[in-house]
Write a structure and sequence with these properties.
mainly beta
């Protein structure tokens, strides 16, 4: 069983920055592909960014490219999402997710069905 605990959400003005963190349990974190998703009421959960276990590969949804950066510190079992130049449309509940099925740190996943563990979510609200 893997537990994921997000932190760092909050209220920020448009143009501002936030950094989300997700601390994971487990002894083989460097093999976990990790992802950040977001969801607003009435819409499906969507991928924001994902990163391979080794950290060598990353994916970004088009609307966040150039503004958000996903990274990880495998020594701390933590994945981060640095969010800059925030826009009103970034307002959502952000979820951390882990794929623990792979034995390799090389793989990257972008579909919500690819992830088998989820955090509880953290609210990000961007005001005008």
């Amino acid at each position: 069983q893997v537990q994921l605990l997000e932190s760092g959400g909050g209220l920020v003005q448009a143009g501002g920055s936030l950094r989300l963190s997700c601390a994971a349990s487990g002894r083989t974190f460097s093999t976990y592909a990790m992802g950040w998703f977001r969801q607003v009421p009435g819409k499906e959960r969507e991928i924001v960014a994902s990163i391979s276990g080794s950290g060598g590969r990353a994916y970004y949804e088009d609307s966040v490219k150039g503004r958000f950066t996903i990274s990880r510190d495998n020594a701390k079992n933590t994945v981060y999402l640095q969010m800059n130049s925030l826009k009103n449309e970034d307002t959502a509940v952000y979820y951390c997710a882990a794929n623990t099925r792979s034995l390799s740190g090389a793989y990257l996943y972008i579909g919500s069905n690819d992830f088998n563990y989820w955090g509880q979510g953290t609210q990000v609200t961007v005001s005008s």
